[in-house]
Design brief:
Archaeosine Trna-guanine Transglycosylase, Chain: A, domain 4, two-stranded antiparallel sheet
């Protein structure tokens, strides 16, 4: 038995789950209390990723990704006021969102929070490249560019997370199992440098403050895309 990794989180202020005091059984990643805070659909994704990992080490990156998402889901449950997620999007997806009008991010992840929870995404541009998507965009006649690496380049409202698959009509999705639908995209005038350790995380106060300042500056600029017709208000004071 080892301490649950979520014990490092600060306790909730006001309504919400109590601070984690649990321990993790051998072969598990979270204590029972924290695991119960992970949405059921995401639990299923973690179980399948763990099974694939046991069958072959090639699945280790996918398992780390979905386990990171499960921990973020627990953190969201323990921090009811938190609403901004930092999401690392391999190149050229940051460009697709902030410059090319993409409002549907293909993903392997189901919702991280119950319906009704308002969430926003800070789009982080890493040095990694999604070569398959890059070639597909070029084949479609687009000219994708690499956004500044290791920086947050935009903020968008997460309008919803829906099932994808072959029936989903948005051309950006291309058969992904889940679709993260975006709205109110704001390109940051000055990308916010950051060295990300995870692919998905809740920002610390200093990073949050830098993103806030650039978001407010970007929101005052004229829309860069025809699809940017409304820029909604982010509840920064609640963070």
């Amino acid at each position: 038995m080892t301490p649950c990794p979520m014990q490092d989180l600060p306790g909730c202020l006001g309504p919400g789950p109590a601070p984690c005091l649990g321990t993790v059984r051998q072969g598990h990643a979270l204590c029972r209390t924290c695991w119960a805070l992970v949405p059921q659909a995401l639990q299923g994704v973690v179980y399948r990723a763990a099974g694939a990992l046991r069958r072959g080490r090639r699945a280790v990156d996918h398992y780390r990704w979905v386990l990171c998402a499960a921990k973020v889901a627990v953190e969201l449950a323990r921090r009811p006021a938190a609403s901004l997620l930092c999401l690392s999007c391999p190149q050229p997806w940051p460009w697709a969102v902030v410059k090319a009008g993409c409002r549907a991010l293909p993903s392997c992840l189901p919702p991280l929070a119950p319906p009704g929870r308002v969430l926003w995404l800070a789009l982080y541009a890493p040095g990694d490249v999604d070569a398959e998507s890059l070639n597909w965009m070029r084949d479609e006649g687009l000219m994708p560019r690499m956004e500044p690496v290791h920086a947050v380049v935009g903020v968008a409202q997460l309008r919803g997370v829906v099932e994808g698959g072959a029936q989903h009509q948005d051309p950006w999705v291309r058969g992904a199992p889940w679709v993260w639908q975006l709205d109110g995209v704001v390109a940051l005038p000055e990308p916010v440098p950051h060295q990300a350790r995870d692919a998905l995380w809740l920002p610390e106060p200093d990073l949050l403050d830098q993103i806030r300042r650039q978001w407010k500056a970007g929101r005052d600029l004229p829309p860069r895309l025809v699809t940017e017709t409304m820029k909604v208000t982010f509840p920064w004071e609640d963070q």
